[in-house]
């Protein structure tokens, strides 16, 4: 009896539990393995449906309501509405329920519409046709019906429907070309490989006869990592095991290029694909405006509770005397009299809460959401931020090469650069339907690669007489300067990674010699060199770095047959490992890449993007502290900073680097630098000319600064000292940074005592963690790929567009939304404080001052549209002025328009206006025969008069704050006032049959028929607006801001530095 099946089964469920969890087995074509091979255990995997939508038809209402009522304002108004339903309150439940219903409905419609668009996008993807191989024939089916183990055929220019393992292609060498633009934005062609044992299965019948299983890791989001093993079963032979890596895996969303067709097997489907795992929702960022709104909301909630408590206490104090039970028209029932006093007091407290609850502006949140949603289109529509070259504009959600070659071991050096790369040669006349590589009417070859640097170096060799021809039958062919073709068998490729910072190839020459060629960063090559003109090359590399060139060193090693066999054994063992493959490969590479002979060095020039220096200079003038975070070496990064005017020739550079900390302790270096900058700050306080400082820190030193140690605990926190030094420098350069360190820098600055607003901008995948960490993340849609743009809050085509994004759109957007927030609180104070004062004149009986219709429509209809339009189109200063004078940005930095003094001014202005409304109308009503016919005004007429003055005052206040007038402003502002008048005439001029009361009948018309009422309305509006006008005139005359001076075409004042912003530099071109 064969116990192998039982043994494998037990090992999976028992001893191999970790193996079972961390890996999956895929049966190609759903064929069972041979009985003696392993147990056949069908595993359940998700189907190939992509689901990016948030809701379904059945869960939309409960799920959306739950999410909306998590917002404190919505939940508060829900409680108020329930209180109105449960107890006897002075106002109808409609007054709270209708605004809440409006807010909830508008938000639900917006979110439902957005989710419906996601559903449509999902359906279009899931219903895409796919060619699947079944029983030796090609069958067309829908993408959603694919399952793990299905074999599919993909044709040129088609998108891969799921994550596929390449089995064979139309090319004889089993390669195919792929673009991953939709994944990371890289439009260059990448090469993927089929394993040698399956590359000959080129027809449907042959592929259907393939008998194999794949063991691979469980789904994980890293686009560039895949570990697996394929076991190929043949009759009467032992199974063949081959390692699988990222070079064999075709990712969903990528597109097949310049390859007629391929056959591949589905490995990960649906939400298990790497694309789906990478597009998980990001953590929600909260703006400073939203934080201020929540803080102001808490203050107003406390005011509301205080009002309710004061009125409740005063009511019972006023009723303490027996003869003041309650007003004659509002006697309590016997049931009320028998209740315990605490219960009655609590009920009255809730009633007052309901009466004053309108001080909390529930509609402010929906208005802010609409302003954000509609305002984002102004950025997308900005023609100045459209790039003709890329054909894209800004999104709300972002090189010229010259080479200089060393001359050591010239021939071998040139051969090394012709062989040590992953460049592919394209000879066809058209690529992606575009004619390329045509010379004198005949097609010629050209190079494609995932790295533009590699293409530049290979093309440079071609100009120097060494032409890389092709990779054919695992042989690399070179045409040397004597027009002779040299063939080298490509044995192994040791791919580049960011940790090693180098790549290598092992080739076999026609003479049988084994050679290992390696190129990489100087810091990764020089320690492994044992011969060659090291000092001469090192000096040249340092000189090139100072000039701003990006350098690579090239070396080689000759291998004996025994060393080569040992190398193959090490690589094969590491590649076949399912667990810790990357670590084992790194160990193998470390053992192989050593004992080099240095050949020389290359240098590639990165030119600044258009107007990059002007943009940096403008940001600094705007008061922003610029930090450059890059992976480049210090000399290269510093030269780039000088070129971009971040550092100037007068800037004194302070170095906090590994080289310096090796000479003296980190503690001493930090305190020396701290004394230097603090001494300068003391001198600046004595009006001595200031020295401009720039700080440079490298990744190794940063790790030491951030790492807690016993020394730091005893002598102060290194982080705080580092931040203190940085604060006193005009710019900071962080070089040799890993992606995680970039995010750590941003997090460190965010947590500093100033709590500055941080902005991170980058164009590469290595910038994503930093972009996600910053308060605002901006991606550049450049040649580095679009992964940064996809994960950003905003995306721009070029770095130069950052200037207008911040100095114009950012400035205007902040002024608009700050006015919106302050105005909402102001108009609600004006609205509800007269109601509070009215209680002192009605025996605290909870009698409403305003009619139910006015309570309901005040925030929804009468005062909502003017402020919404203001928040969308207001321009307090021209766009040209904002672009010309970056210092104007300082007036709005550090959340200056939403600080507590400004908030208190708006609140006090609202209280003053409310007192004018109420007491002005009260003193006018002191003459009870106010109408021409001698008829007395009642309480509803009094409330209507107060409400009329209120609506006109708050609307005219906004008109006074408006600087940019268009016909739309006039239409909305005067139209809102006209709508109020017409509504009041209709509401009080008709007996509405659906109302159980007619208390407002003829009230508004009676009020307007009185001449003193007209005079009173005009007088009260004028008195209410006068203090704000006087304040503005005095401030503009005596203490004008830079913006106000610019509005008057006067020179701007200088203001001290404000918000710190974090910007980034790409690793291969300057893209802050």
What would you say this structure looks like, in words?
Component of a P4-ATPase flippase complex which consists of a catalytic alpha subunit ATP11A and an accessory beta subunit TMEM30A. Keywords: ATP-binding, Cell membrane, Endoplasmic reticulum, Endosome, Lipid transport, Magnesium, Membrane, Metal-binding, Nucleotide-binding, Phosphoprotein, Translocase, Transmembrane, Transmembrane helix, Transport. Residues 130-215 form the P-type ATPase A domain. ATP binds at residues 454, 496, 519, 550, 630-632, 736, 742, 766-767. The chain crosses the membrane at residues 295-318, 349-368, 853-873, 903-925, 937-959, 971-995, 1001-1026. By secondary structure, the chain is an alpha+beta fold. Among the domains are: 50-127, no CATH class; 133-278, Calcium-transporting ATPase, cytoplasmic transduction domain A (Distorted Sandwich); 481-605, Calcium-transporting ATPase, cytoplasmic domain N; 807-1048, no CATH class. It contains 38 helices and 37 strands. Strands 15, 22, 23, 24, 25, 26, 27, 28 and 29 form a nine-stranded mixed sheet that branches. The chain has a six-stranded antiparallel sheet with strand order 3-2-4-13-5-11. A five-stranded parallel sheet has the order 31-32-33-30-37, with helices on both faces. Helix 22 (666-685) runs parallel beside helix 25 and helix 31 packs antiparallel against helix 35 (967-989). It is elongated.
């Amino acid at each position: 009896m064969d116990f192998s099946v039982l043994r494998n089964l037990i090992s999976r469920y028992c001893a191999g539990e970790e193996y079972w969890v961390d890996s999956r087995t895929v049966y190609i074509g759903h064929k069972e393995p041979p009985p003696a091979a392993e147990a056949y255990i069908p595993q359940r995997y998700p189907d190939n449906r992509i689901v990016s939508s948030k809701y379904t038809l059945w869960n939309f209402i409960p799920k959306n309501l739950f999410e909306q009522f998590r917002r404190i304002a919505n939940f508060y108004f829900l409680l108020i509405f329930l209180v109105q339903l449960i107890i006897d309150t002075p106002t109808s439940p409609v007054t709270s329920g209708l605004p809440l219903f409006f807010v909830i409905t508008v938000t639900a419609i917006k979110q439902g519409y957005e989710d419906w668009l996601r559903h449509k996008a999902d359906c279009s993807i899931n219903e895409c046709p796919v060619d699947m191989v079944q029983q030796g024939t090609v069958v067309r089916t829908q993408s959603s019906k694919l399952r793990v183990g299905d074999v599919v055929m993909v044709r040129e220019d088609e998108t891969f429907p799921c994550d596929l393992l390449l089995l064979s292609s139309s090319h004889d060498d089993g390669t195919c070309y792929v673009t991953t633009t939709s994944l990371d934005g890289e439009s260059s062609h990448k090469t993927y490989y089929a394993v040698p044992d399956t590359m000959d299965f080129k027809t449907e019948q042959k592929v259907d006869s393939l008998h194999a299983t794949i063991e691979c890791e469980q789904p994980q989001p890293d686009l560039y990592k895949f570990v697996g093993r394929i076991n190929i079963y043949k009759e009467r032979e032992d199974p063949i095991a081959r390692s699988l890596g990222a070079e064999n895996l075709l990712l969903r969303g990528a597109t097949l290029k310049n390859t007629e067709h391929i056959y591949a097997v589905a490995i990960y489907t649906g939400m298990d694909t790497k694309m789906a795992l990478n597009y998980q929702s990001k953590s929600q960022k909260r703006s400073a405006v939203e934080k201020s709104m929540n803080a102001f909301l808490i203050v107003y909630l406390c005011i509301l509770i205080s009002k309710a408590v004061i009125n409740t206490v005063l009511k019972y104090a006023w009723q303490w005397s027996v003869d003041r039970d309650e007003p004659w028209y509002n006697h309590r029932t016997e049931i009320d009299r028998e209740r315990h006093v605490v219960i009655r007091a609590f009920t009255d407290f809730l009633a007052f809460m309901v009466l004053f609850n309108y001080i909390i502006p529930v509609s402010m949140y929906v208005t802010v959401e609409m302003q954000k949603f509609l305002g984002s289109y102004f950025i997308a529509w900005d023609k100045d931020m459209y790039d003709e070259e890329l054909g894209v504009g800004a999104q709300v959600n972002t090189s010229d090469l010259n080479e200089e070659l060393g001359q050591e071991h010239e021939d071998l050096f040139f051969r090394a650069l012709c062989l040590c790369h992953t460049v592919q040669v394209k000879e066809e006349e058209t690529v992606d339907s575009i004619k390329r590589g045509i010379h004198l009417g005949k097609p010629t070859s050209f190079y494609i690669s995932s790295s533009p640097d590699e293409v530049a170096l290979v093309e440079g060799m071609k100009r120097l007489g060494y032409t890389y021809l092709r990779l054919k039958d695992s042989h690399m062919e070179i045409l040397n300067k004597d027009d002779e073709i040299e063939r080298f068998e490509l044995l192994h490729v040791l791919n580049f990674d960011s940790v090693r910072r180098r790549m290598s190839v092992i080739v076999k020459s026609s003479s049988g010699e084994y050679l290992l060629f390696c190129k990489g960063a100087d810091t990764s090559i020089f320690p492994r060199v044992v011969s060659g003109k090291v000092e001469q090359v090192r000096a040249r590399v340092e000189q090139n770095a100072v000039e701003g060139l990006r350098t690579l060193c090239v070396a080689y090693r000759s291998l004996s047959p025994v060393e080569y066999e040992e190398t193959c054994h090490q690589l094969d063992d590491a590649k076949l490992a399912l667990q810790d493959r990357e670590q084992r490969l790194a160990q193998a590479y470390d053992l192989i890449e050593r004992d080099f002979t240095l050949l020389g060095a290359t240098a590639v020039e990165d030119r600044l993007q258009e107007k990059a220096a002007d943009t940096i200079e403008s940001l600094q003038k705007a008061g922003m502290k610029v930090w450059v975070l890059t992976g480049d070496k210090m000399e290269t990064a510093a030269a780039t900073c000088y070129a971009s005017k971040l550092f100037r020739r007068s800037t004194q550079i302070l170095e906090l680097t590994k080289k310096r900390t090796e000479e003296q302790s980190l503690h001493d270096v930090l305190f020396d630098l701290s004394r230097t900058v603090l001494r300068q700050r003391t001198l600046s306080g004595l009006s001595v000319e200031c020295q401009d400082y720039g700080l440079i820190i490298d990744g190794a030193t940063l790790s030491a600064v951030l790492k807690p140690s016993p020394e730091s605990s005893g002598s102060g926190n290194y982080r705080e000292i580092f931040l203190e030094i940085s604060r006193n420098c005009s710019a900071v350069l962080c070089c040799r940074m890993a992606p995680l360190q970039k995010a750590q820098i941003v997090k460190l600055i965010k947590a500093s005592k100033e709590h500055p607003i941080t902005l991170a901008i980058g164009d590469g995948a290595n910038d994503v963690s930093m972009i996600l960490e910053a308060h605002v993340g901006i991606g550049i849609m450049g040649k580095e790929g679009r992964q940064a743009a996809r994960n950003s809050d905003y995306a721009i085509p070029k770095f130069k567009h950052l200037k207008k994004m911040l100095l114009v759109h950012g400035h205007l957007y902040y002024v608009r939304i700050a006015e919106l927030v302050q105005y909402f609180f102001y108009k609600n104070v004006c609205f509800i404080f007269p109601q509070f004062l009215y209680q002192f004149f009605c025996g605290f009986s909870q009698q409403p001052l305003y009619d139910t219709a006015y309570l309901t429509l005040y925030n929804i209809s009468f005062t909502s549209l003017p402020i919404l339009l203001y928040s969308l189109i207001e321009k307090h200063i021209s766009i040209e002025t904002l672009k010309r004078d970056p210092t104007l940005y300082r007036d709005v930095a550090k959340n200056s328009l939403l600080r507590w003094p400004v908030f208190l001014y708006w609140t006090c202005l609202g209280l003053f206006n409310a007192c004018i409304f109420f007491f002005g109308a009260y003193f006018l009503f002191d003459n009870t025969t106010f109408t021409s016919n001698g008829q007395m005004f009642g309480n509803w007429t009094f409330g209507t008069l107060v409400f009329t003055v209120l609506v006109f005052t708050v609307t005219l206040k906004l008109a006074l704050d408006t600087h940019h007038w268009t016909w739309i402003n006039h239409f909305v502002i005067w139209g809102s006032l006209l709508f109020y008048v017409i509504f009041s005439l209709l509401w009080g001029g008709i007996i509405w049959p659906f109302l159980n009361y007619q208390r407002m009948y003829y009230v508004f018309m009676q009020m307007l028929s009185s001449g003193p009422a007209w005079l009173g309305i005009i007088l009260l509006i004028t008195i209410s607006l006068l203090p704000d006008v006087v304040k503005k005139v005095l401030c503009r005359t005596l203490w004008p801001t830079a913006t106000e001076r610019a509005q008057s075409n006067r020179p701007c004042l200088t203001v001290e530095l404000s918000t710190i912003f974090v910007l980034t530099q790409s690793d291969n071109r300057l893209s802050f």
